[in-house]
Amino acid sequence: MNTITGQFNKTNDFDNIVLERHSIKVYDPEVKISREEMTEILAKASRAPSAINMQPWRFLVIDSAEGKEKLAPLASFNQTQALTSSAVIAVFYDANNVEYMEEIFSKSVELGYMPQDIMDIQMQQVKPYYANINASELRDMNLIDSGLISMQLMLVARAHGYDTNPMAGYDKDQIAEVFGLDKERFQPVMLISIGKAAKEGYPSYRLPVETITTWA
Questions:
Q1: How far apart are the first and last CA of the chain?
Q2: Which of 2, 22, 114, 168 could form a disulfide with 108 if both were Cys (CB 3.0 to 4.6 A apart)?
Q3: CA–CA separation, 113 vs 47, rounded Å?
Q4: Three-state secondary structure string covering 177-194
């Protein structure tokens, strides 16, 4: 079998990206995404917003046969997506992401995104905030930020011509350890399969705006 590599049709059509995105259950296993293109996709996804720009998300890209074999027993009823997709991206949040605070703020000054005096003021506010926040509040904040980047990742993948499926059905207690990560530090959020659909996804009914919206 020939492996299909290279970029598919990219699009900047926002309606197409948003309205035609469907969750895919079966992928073309011959389609591979180069690590160069995957890096580009992740870099674009990483432009998602986060609280105080702390960027707590971390990615584990499982794209090798060996990696998928490790993942399959953990993926329960999502094994088909795991095994046929080009890759599965495990999204974690870093419970110790505060370690990157100095780098994030300093680089913002170095790149001209923020004046030094504003950095000094923000650091004086942010450090005690993180020192005093309780574990539950920090977890909630990190999960929100990780959800934002996960959706952005799926939209970026669609813009690159690929399909995705977010998955919560996997062994969250073991995934970090199985792949050699510190399970206390790296907390699982979701799996996202990515590749080229072998079968088109189905449209799904969405509640009307009138049902889900209150105006005040």
A1: 59
A2: 114
A3: 14
A4: HHCCCCCCCEEEEEEEEE
Confirm if 165 and 26 have CB atoms less than 8 A apart: no
Q: Per the structure block, which two tokens stand in for 171?
A: 């062994």
Closest by CA position to 157, among listed 38, 49, 67, 55: 38
Enter the pTM of the model: 0.93
**Cα–Cα distance between 46 and 94 in angstroms, integer?**
14
Res 1: pLDDT? 43
**In which residue are the tokens 């650091």 written?**
123
Triad 31, 38, 144: Cα angle to 5°: 120
Residue with tokens 């299909």: 4
- Could you tell me the mean pLDDT of each successive run of 10 residues in the chain, 216 residues long? 63 91 94 97 98 97 96 91 96 96 96 95 92 94 98 97 95 97 97 94 93 98
